[in-house]
Amino acid sequence: MSGKTHIMVLDDDPDICTMIKMVLEYHGFIAIDADNEEKANSILASNHIDLIIMDMLLSGVDGTDVCRRLKGDPERNTIPILMFSAHPTARENCLAA
Fold first, then answer.
1. How far from 77 is each of 27, 41, 48, 63, 68, CA to CA, in Å?
2. Which residue has the higher pLDDT, 88 or 77?
3. What pTM value is reported for the model?
4. CA 71 from centre of chain
């Protein structure tokens, strides 16, 4: 494993994933993308992840529910999660998760 920070980007919009990954990689991070919770769990099972950047609204699932499940998992609950959204109540919902 390299000394670089590994960041998983979880968003169902491929353009947003690509943009965030490009910015992260430009700044020297290793970025891995996932477009759903199942793929994210697979990545987490086989990679060391230092940070998760994720959308609050994912296709078919609320990102705050995904966040709660991650924070409830003793093997993953120490990974910091940065959530983003354009939704007007995003701040309160994300902090609650």
1. 26, 13, 13, 15, 9
2. 77
3. 0.86
4. 12
